[in-house]
Write a structure and sequence with these properties.
By secondary structure, the protein is mainly alpha-helical. The protein is 62% helix and 9% strand. Strand 1 and strand 2 form a beta hairpin. The structure holds zinc ion. The site of zinc ion (ZN) has 9 residues, from loops.
Length: 293
Amino acid sequence: MICTNCFEAEYKPAKTDMTVDIDGRKHILRDLDCEACPTCGEIIFSHQQSLEIDKKRIAFQFGEKPLLTPDQLKLLRRVLDMNLEEVCNLLHIGRNTYGRWERGEVAITPSMNLLIHNFIERFPDARVNFYVEDRIKTIEKANATLLGRDISLGEYLREVMAATRLLPDVVYHLTGIVPDDWKRIQNNEMEPEKIPSEMAGKVAHFFRLTLDALEKLLNETWRITSMKSSFTAIHARSCCHGVGGLALKESSMNKIIEKVAQKRGNAPIPKTVSKEYLAKVKAILEEMEKAEG
Ligand SMILES: [Zn+2]
């Protein structure tokens, strides 16, 4: 067939690359069969060649989605708040299939993998827990409001978790900080510099906090922890016993003190976080960023 662009020569079989958009990201499909004009370089695709490109594109889309791990499949069920039977019904799969994937007995099939990824992408609450890019975007959006306020680290963490809809389990898992330590930080139970610098680094890294932002939060935490010591006398006289009661009291007392601190407004912070401590956190943050590449 003669070139419809220059009318100088016949098209000849050739190979070409093509950029395609898959889920908002650009990918290059290489070595595609095409017909090219040797004179002007015009490229056309026959019907058959177009079909082959569609097939490659679909294969790419399947391959692009990493296979969901057993942990992620369990997480999905927690996000959806569904039991095994409900999730199997939802996906129209055999009663035991999902359980076998979750236990890692059988790998999920590529088509179900793609289906579940597509499914996750429709739910903002699921996306933030599953995909790192969504997580970062959502956290940064919450930070834009939260970091403008005079709040302690504990209060910040509670607020950012609520605002982003991150699941505690996901945060424990991804930061490697155990639930008990999280609760102690969230309740401002530790004086700022008693929080191990490595833990502070992990928190700052995960929640995209700059060293300055962390410093401000920790200074506000000093305000709370120092007020707490003056509340201890009342605390000791109240009548709750047992570990459960104690944990509950820690969190409710912390909230009361936060309220009092807010009412006092701009009273000076009794103590600030030392430069030495911040330098240690900075080193940890830099190490974590380097490890990420
Ligand atoms: Zn031509």
